[in-house]
Amino acid sequence: MIFLLKRLTTRALTYGPLSLFLLVSLYPLIWLLFYSFKDNEEIFSTNVFGIPKHWRWENYSNAFDVFDIVGYFKNSLIVSIGTVVFTVILALMFSYAAARMKWRFANASRVYMTSGMFIPMQIILIPLLILERTLHLQNSYLAVIVPYVAFQLSFATIIFYAFFKSLPYEIEESAAIDGASVYTIFFKIMVPLVKPAIASVSIFVFLFAWNEFLVALIMISENTLKTLPLGLLYFQTQFGSDWGAMGAVMVISTIPTIIVYLLFSEQIEKALTVSSAVKG
Amino acid sequence: MTTKQKYNLALLVFTVPTLLFFSVIVVFPILQTFQKSFFDWDGLTPATFIGFDNYVRLWGDDDFWVSIRNGLIFALVLVVYQIGIGTLLAIALSTKSLRGKKFFRTSYFVPVVLSGVVVSQLWIAIYNTDGGLINSLLSLFGFNYQQAWLSGEHSSIWAIAFSGAWHHLGIQLVLIYTAIKSIPEQLYEAATIDGAPFWKMHWKITVPLLSEAYKFCLIIAITGGLNAFQNMFVMTNGGPGNISYTLTFMMYKAAFRSGEYGYGSAAAAVLVLECLLFTILINKFVAREKINY
């Protein structure tokens, strides 16, 4: 009896707080979903907590009317994919050289690349703006892709390096005996072997680029080039009092990232844990 | 070309683009930020060297001290909420008999993938004075503690910091959870045989063994707090007055709104030094000895 009681309390003590936190992390999102179908009155006075009494789909059509969602999506997609492609290529090549090739500065240059993990992006904004102004990069996709890639390189390098290091050396030795060049070994043998790492990095970098805000805010003022976060900000200043439409826009812009996460959650967590293995 | 030459050429092809790119876009601008912090500069005309004047001006600027204080409060909230509560949740999640581990972990992580603008917008609504979620909850449970959370002199920075902590709890949770998973089972078995109570066992075994992981967690939480910007920018625009200012906000305002690039650079330089200081302190005091199982 006492044993049973003890087990019950342990259960309550673990599931209780865990469920409470489930509410804390998910309810705001459910609340957002609900209020994207309500009007101001229902959101803030008549029906604050619950499901909409009357589902106002017009919030969504209103949002689509005044918010160029297709344009912002397209811009965010171009920027995010561009960032992923360049980050992966540059980091893969460098990590391979740092992990598998023999040269004197292999370790020093790896540490150098890794240091970017602890550098906040905002501190370079001023010189970066000047640099982009000089190169006439402002108001182009490259204006944000370039800094995004530069800052994601450290993270990507850490992951790829760890994966390359874990592969057995015999692979290259036997390939070299067969007369394969460094490039053949890299493209034909090594890159396919680190595909899981490429997936992890791509997803992580994609989410970063999709959500980034400050660099985009400073480098892009042209409305047709604005990414989704900038679009949201613009919408807030223009139509901030229509909470329902605001909610609809927020829901629409959030759905892709949530889907990406639900599909690839394990990969994301793996990438995170590998990167934390490098301590500052 | 000899084989050796070919190898060296390949090495250059693989490393130079990345190293060069990183140096030009990240490292060189950092040095420039420091250099330009000693200049009076509008970003267009040539800069005039003025020594430490920008720093002296910061020292006397009320906004600067509010920014420093807010950065520290933000960092504190992140540490307590993400690492403190994150640890408790991770321990509970690592209970062997627990069902739905994956479900819980995934749910806690979901806010991480939201855009910062969405999170800020969402919490503006949650903190709304009239009928926002928090105030409505308080009145639902009969508490007479309704506030203008985001504009209150004492509540503003805490409210903003909490939304930031909420946003990224999942990252720290995953890091701590994986670190716990790597602790050998025998340690707990021995403690259980000795009859150690659950939480005491974790306090004595888990937490000390997490110190390596905590190092990384603390660095990202503290530098994240000191660097906070977006939450303030979207939620309160630094105000009312200067109560929700941060160093990044000062830099942004000085450089991109008032055209004082030198002064903005000085604020950025202080931010780097502050982050560096904390990183050094954490490295010095947390997990000085490597743990080997």
From TrEMBL, chain B:
A GO CC annotation given for this chain: plasma membrane
Q: Name one Pfam family in it.
A: BPD_transp_1
What does the UniProt keyword field contain?
A: Cell membrane, Membrane, Transmembrane, Transmembrane helix, Transport
Segments spanning the bilayer are 7-31, 72-94, 106-126, 157-180, 209-229, 261-282
Q: Answer whether the UniProt record assigns the keyword Cell membrane to this protein.
A: yes
> Does the entry feature the keyword Transmembrane, yes or no?
yes
Q: Where does the ABC transmembrane type-1 domain lie?
A: 68-282
Recorded hits in CDD domains, A to Z, give:
TM_PBP2 (cd06261)
Specify the domain of life of the species encoding this protein: Bacteria
Its placement in the membrane is given as:
Multi-pass membrane protein
Q: Which GO terms describe its biological process?
A: transmembrane transport
Sorted alphabetically, which InterPro entries does this protein's record hold? ABC_transporter_permease, MetI-like, MetI-like_sf
Cell location:
Cell membrane
Among PANTHER family, the record links this protein to: ABC TRANSPORTER PERMEASE PROTEIN (PTHR30193), INNER MEMBRANE ABC TRANSPORTER PERMEASE PROTEIN YCJO (PTHR30193:SF37)
The text of the family note is: Belongs to the binding-protein-dependent transport system permease family.
Name the chain's protein: Sugar ABC transporter permease
